[in-house]
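hi! just following up on the protien thing from before. the input was this:
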Amino acid sequence: MFKTGKFITRNVIVMIINAYRWLTVIRLLFPNFAPIKMNVNKIIASWGGIGYIKGGGTIAAIVTCLLLYLANQQELLQNVWVLPVATLIITLLGIYVGNQVEPDWGKDSYRVVIDEVSGQMVTLLFVPLTNQNLIIGLVLFRFFDMVKPLGIRKMEDLKGGTGVMMDDVLAGVYANVVLQLILLIIPHFS
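and the predicted 3d structure came back as:
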């Protein structure tokens, strides 16, 4: 099982590196063809277009839970480091694309939902991915993301993509702490 997870992880990393190489080649061959770059950034920022749907943030969080559920069923998340690394990659990618789309879409556009993806992933770090925990984690994350208590709103004041992402990351941290406490108090949820 460990070898399979290692093999799949290595293949995903190779695919990401190859995609980056192709984008670099396209940029070198067509330096004035910015629409390719901008469209890719918009697709990533809107999580494949989910950001264009009304309620896109909630839908992106639900889709993230479903994807994590499926990945867990396929035993892709069995190694404890896979989800934290994936969360870090999504967060850093979100900061980058947030900076790229801000000139066109404005500060923290409703279309940018990769921040909800990252925040939902943070919520579920180091938590057994049972159906109950996914649902409770979703509800907790959306609560903290919408109400924005305890300094979450201040994170939005950070510049560019960092401000877009960090309020959701902090909402995910708070939701994770509450979920961990629930699991300690009521152990049958794990």
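Helices lie at 2-29, 34-45, 56-73, 82-105, 114-123, 131-147, 152-155, 160-185.
The first helix runs from residue 2 to 29.
cheers
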